[in-house]
């Protein structure tokens, strides 16, 4: 699929801002995925291309944490495997859905995830009570979130972090490191399916990945000056506006059907 140069530059710019927002408040995929849809990219290609740029950022974060010896690879190996498998299962499922179904459900999912970000709990750095055993968490929670990442994606890192904190009782920094590792694994699982299917628009994916990494580096440095309290509401509002545009921009979508009533 060919992308007009103006759309190409615009999508790269969106990835830059998404990386910036993601480093401060999380949820960068809430911007990049609807932007790809609005640009007219085929739904499956949009999912696949977005997954590549998301994978680049998550793998980069894992590499940084690994160099600082903040990830317990041996202890987390079972979670790593099940997260990877969950991502594969989700990507295989999305590959079998009809284009019209994808166009209809994506805006609704975006608004749902944006609502989660708007009302998600503020996590502290204190120990919390463990509510699930490590075995149950690994067997049930990890592949479930991994599957969600493969079939949709935005907010996965936040879901892993909240789950590690509230269900395993981990301190915030531990939860962040583990969530980045598990997010990278399900990203790579889904990406392997999309890569073999040929759905990724590689020039666009590479440009967006590079811009997302640059934006994340800038965002990380600005995090000390701009907290999530400022950036998070802006991210949610922009995401909802993009989702509403998707809902009512196509006569075959749910929004178009509602307008005809």
TrEMBL record:
The chain crosses the membrane at residues 7-38, 44-65, 77-94, 100-119, 131-151, 188-218, 230-248. It comes from Pseudomonas monteilii. It is a multi-pass membrane protein. Belongs to the 4-toluene sulfonate uptake permease (TSUP) (TC 2.A.102) family. Pfam families: TauE (PF01925). It is found in: Cell membrane. This is Probable membrane transporter protein. The lineage of its organism: Bacteria, Pseudomonadati, Pseudomonadota, Gammaproteobacteria, Pseudomonadales. One of its GO terms (cellular component) is plasma membrane.
């Amino acid at each position: 699929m060919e992308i007009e140069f103006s759309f190409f530059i615009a999508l790269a710019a969106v990835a830059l801002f998404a990386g910036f927002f993601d480093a401060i408040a999380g949820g960068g995929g809430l911007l990049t995925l609807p932007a790809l849809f609005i640009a007219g990219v085929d739904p499956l290609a949009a999912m696949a291309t977005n997954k590549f740029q998301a994978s680049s950022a998550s793998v980069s974060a894992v590499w940084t944490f690994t160099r600082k010896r903040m990830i317990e690879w041996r202890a987390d190996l079972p979670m790593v495997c099940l997260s990877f498998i969950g991502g594969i299962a989700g990507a295989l499922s999305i590959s079998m859905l009809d284009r019209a179904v994808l166009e209809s459900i994506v805006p609704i999912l975006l608004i749902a995830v944006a609502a989660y970000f708007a009302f998600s709990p503020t996590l502290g750095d204190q120990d919390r009570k463990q509510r699930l055993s490590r075995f149950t968490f690994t067997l049930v929670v990890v592949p479930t979130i991994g599957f969600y990442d493969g079939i949709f994606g935005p907010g996965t890192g936040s879901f892993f972090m909240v789950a590690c904190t509230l269900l395993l009782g981990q301190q915030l920094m531990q939860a962040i490191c583990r969530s980045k590792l598990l997010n990278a694994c399900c990203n790579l699982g889904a990406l392997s399916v999309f890569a073999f299917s040929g759905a990724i628009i590689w020039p666009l994916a590479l440009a967006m990945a590079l811009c997302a990494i640059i934006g994340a580096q800038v965002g990380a440095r600005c995090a000390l000056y701009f907290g999530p309290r400022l950036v998070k509401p802006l991210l949610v509002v922009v995401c909802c506006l993009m989702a509403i545009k998707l809902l009512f921009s196509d006569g075959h979508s749910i929004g178009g059907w509602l307008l005809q009533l």
